[in-house]
Structure formats: structure tokens, C-alpha cells
């Protein structure tokens, strides 16, 4: 395997996932991670597509030259709402390899295991590279302006903040210490002012929103930076 580190794949993905819903982003990172364990190298080729871009794409092979690439008009694709992404698979040399083989099926299975819908299951026009997460919203609901929750029910999501205690707190403290942030009480499992300061410093350093709360984005960055220093 020629230098195709997981970290590299995750970084590549990050660039393509701008304006994609953060929960969908998390799922795509999870897909990349789990596929990597099976020696399947996933890159994201496209995430958010504006309605205007979708119109242009739809015109291709219809009003403009070329062959038809989509049946979805502007506003008729989950990409237009930041709820879909497309992948490609790389071979061992890091080249895109479009051979539809068992790796694609496996990638589809992994995606479905983490709650995504896979275009490879579609009956009319199979779209192997495509994954989406709809939050139960139809395209017509989305077109009429309905939006998925920014954060799904908070209860099921980890939010670690000032005043919190327990294993979650201890875990992030360990990572912060490992990353060079000093905590007066060490990894004591209590989210006090020194932990708050460290979290804010970390968020600032990584251009995250500096709110001192460890939500999904901060947690993801913590894990990623921590893992980077482990290998
Ligand atoms: Zn797609």
C-alpha cells in the first residue's frame, strides 16, 4: 500500500465535504474509516451541489452537448441540500478505479450499516458512488424549505461541557494532555475551568467555533489529532 494513510483519506474528504450537513459528514468519515479496515480506499468526489450547478448538470445531454449524467433537475437531488455525497475507490497505487467489483458492494454495505442510503440499491438507475442521509425528509419537503435538525436529538449525542463529569470528560482530558495542553487537575474526569480553557485553546488552534463545548466537530478533531500522534 503506497502511502495511502487513513489520515490522508480523511483529509482529502474534508475538502470535498464543505456545506455538507455535519451528521452526514460524520457518517462519511465513518464510512472511510470502516472501509479502510477492509483495505478499501474511499475518496469523496462530490458533496454539496448548488441548485444552479444541478441545473447545469441536468442540461448536459439535453440543452447542452454531452451525454446525460443525471435525471435530477435543480432541487431534485439530495446533493442540493448537503445531504448526499459521492465516492470513488482508489486502487493500491492511489489511482481511481471504477471497476465495479466486490469492493463497491462492501462499501455499500458499510454505508448502510451506518445508516446511509446507497445508490447501488436503486432499481431504476443504479448509482454506485452515491450515498445519502435524508433525515426522513422527502425532496419536496426540502424544496418547500423544510430543514433537518442542525443537531439531532441532543440526548443521543455527546456534548461534553463545563460542569460535566465522568468517563467522557476523562477521555477528552487524556487526549488534550497528550496533545500538549496542560490541565491543572490532570485527567480527573471533572470539566472545570482548566479543561474549559484547554478546549477553547484547542478549538482556536483548529479554527473551530470557540465555545468550549466538545460537540461532534471538536470531538472528531480531537480524535483525529490524537490518532495522528499515535502512529
Ligand atoms: Zn450522488
UniProtKB/TrEMBL annotation:
It is an enzyme of class 3 (hydrolase). Keywords: Hydrolase. Its EC number is 3.4.24.-. Residues 71-133 form the Peptidase M15C domain. GO terms for molecular function: peptidase activity. Residues 165-222 form the Peptidoglycan binding-like domain. InterPro entries: DD-CPase-like, Peptidase_M15C, Peptidoglycan-bd-like, PGBD-like_sf, PGBDSf, Zn_M74/Hedgehog-like. The keyword Hydrolase applies. CDD domains: L-Ala-D-Glu_peptidase_like (cd14845). It comes from the Bacteria. This is L-alanyl-D-glutamate peptidase. The gene is ply.
Amino acid at each position: 500500500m503506497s502511502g495511502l494513510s487513513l489520515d490522508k483519506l480523511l483529509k482529502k474528504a474534508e475538502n470535498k465535504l464543505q456545506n455538507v450537513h455535519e451528521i452526514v459528514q460524520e457518517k462519511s468519515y465513518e464510512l472511510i474509516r470502516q472501509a479502510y479496515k477492509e483495505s478499501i480506499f474511499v475518496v469523496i468526489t462530490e458533496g454539496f451541489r448548488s441548485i444552479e450547478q444541478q441545473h447545469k448538470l441536468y442540461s448536459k445531454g439535453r440543452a447542452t452537448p454531452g451525454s446525460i449524467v443525471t435525471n435530477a433537475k435543480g432541487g431534485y437531488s439530495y446533493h442540493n441540500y448537503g445531504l448526499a455525497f459521492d465516492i470513488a475507490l482508489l486502487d493500491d497505487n492511489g489511482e481511481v478505479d471504477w471497476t465495479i467489483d466486490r469492493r463497491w458492494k462492501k462499501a455499500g454495505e458499510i454505508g448502510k450499516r451506518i445508516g446511509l442510503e446507497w445508490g447501488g440499491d436503486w432499481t431504476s438507475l443504479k448509482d454506485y458512488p452515491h450515498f445519502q442521509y435524508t433525515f426522513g425528509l422527502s425532496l419536496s419537503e426540502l424544496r418547500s424549505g423544510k430543514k433537518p435538525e442542525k443537531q439531532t436529538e441532543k440526548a443521543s449525542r455527546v456534548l461534553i461541557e463545563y460542569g460535566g463529569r465522568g468517563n467522557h470528560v476523562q477521555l477528552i482530558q487524556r487526549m488534550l494532555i497528550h496533545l500538549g495542553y496542560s490541565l491543572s487537575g490532570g485527567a480527573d474526569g471533572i470539566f472545570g475551568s482548566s479543561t474549559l480553557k484547554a478546549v477553547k485553546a484547542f478549538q482556536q488552534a483548529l479554527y473551530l467555533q470557540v465555545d468550549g463545548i466538545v460537540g461532534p466537530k471538536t470531538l472528531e478533531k480531537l480524535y483525529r489529532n490524537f490518532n495522528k500522534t499515535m502512529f
